[in-house]
Specification:
The protein is of the alpha+beta class. It is built from 14 helices and eleven strands.
């Protein structure tokens, strides 16, 4: 019943022009018949709750039935979010100042929220700082974030600029761990950790994790802003694959620093796992969260939490073994907190 309802919603809202564009893309990549691609995409939508973007991105056209069943598709991800997360509490994560206040125990950097009447507060915050990070209070994917050099402009002019452009959340610039800095020094290279929490038994666990790496002299590490992603082995903290950027380029070494990516071990990994599980217990109405965690020489610092973690970068084709998606790992994580796949789907 859930699958049928989801299918009708998708058919109603489908962007047919884009759908046929992706059919053409698959045709060019595979030389498969367009009519076959059309009906196979529809089949995957019915059988696996996969959108046409899932079909293309995860290369489901080159997977058998067993492999396809292991892919966390858009429809399945929506079911997971609906099961675990109460929409009434999304704002705790969407409104950044509220998030910082809620998780202040896990934030190890100075920050302030400014308005038109906060100039003296702003002066106190900037005193002695070479630079800081300025964020919109509700931005996503790194959009609107600026790295501000304090000495480059008059402070009153800077304050007015921030207010006028609604960049109201100011945060101390994080100094990342020396080993992480060697990977790429121009941004904070964060660890995205996905946790699950069961409020019936108060248990939390780590489902998945990956390393987000900046590139091209940009000061953010977001995949959609030119960064790279690569999975992290949850048990060991080791990276076993090449990193991938949005253009499809693969890197065994960072192109700017020549630091090895494949084989790299995330520092303080055991601490990161414990830290993440504790984070998952703070807002118990949101049971699945993607945490962005910075590793510093002094410890760990949570940068933000994502109440609707995307499903697209967990299981990209270059990061799969035997063409198996992430569902088996999701099932193991569910078992760790006393749930099964049947509870969700």
């Amino acid at each position: 019943m859930k699958n049928i309802k989801y299918l009708f919603i998708r058919i109603k809202n489908l962007d047919y022009k884009n759908f046929f564009n992706y059919i053409n893309k698959v045709n060019k990549k595979t030389n498969k018949n367009k009519i076959f691609i059309f009906f196979d995409t529809i089949y995957c939508g019915i059988k696996y709750q996969a959108g046409y973007m899932d079909y293309y991105l995860f290369e489901m056209y080159d997977m058998n039935k067993q492999q396809r069943s292991t892919v966390l598709t858009r429809g399945k991800n929506n079911m997971i979010i609906k099961y675990f997360n109460d929409k009434k509490y999304f704002n705790t994560f969407l409104y950044k100042p509220k998030f910082n206040e809620k998780f202040k125990k896990f934030i190890n950097r100075d920050w302030i929220l400014i308005n038109e009447n906060s100039y003296e507060k702003f002066l106190k915050f900037t005193n002695g700082k070479v630079n800081f990070i300025a964020k919109p209070i509700d931005g996503t994917c790194g959009k609107g974030i600026e790295k501000i050099n304090v000495d480059e402009t008059d402070k009153k002019e800077l304050f007015n600029y921030l207010i006028q452009n609604k960049i109201n959340l100011l945060e101390e610039n994080i100094t990342q761990h020396d080993d992480v800095n060697k990977m790429y020094p121009h941004s904070i290279n964060t660890i995205r950790v996905i946790t699950l929490y069961n409020n019936k038994n108060n248990k939390s666990t780590v489902f998945s994790a990956y390393f987000r790496i900046g590139n091209n002299n940009k000061f953010v590490d977001n995949f959609n802003s030119g960064g790279m992603v690569v999975p992290i082995d949850v048990k060991t903290g080791e990276i076993k694959y090449n990193a991938l950027d949005k253009d499809g380029n693969l890197y065994d070494k960072h192109p700017m620093t020549q630091t090895n990516i494949k084989g790299y071990v995330i520092p303080k990994w055991d601490e990161i796992i414990k830290f993440s599980k504790k984070l998952a217990l703070v807002e118990k109405n949101i049971g699945i969260v993607g945490w962005d965690i910075a590793v510093t020489n002094k410890g760990l610092d949570v940068v933000e939490g994502n109440e609707f973690p995307g499903h697209d970068i967990y299981q990209l084709p270059p990061h799969r073994t035997d063409n198996i998606g992430v569902i088996p790992e999701f099932e193991k994580a569910l078992n760790n907190i006393g749930l099964t796949k049947k509870d969700i789907f």
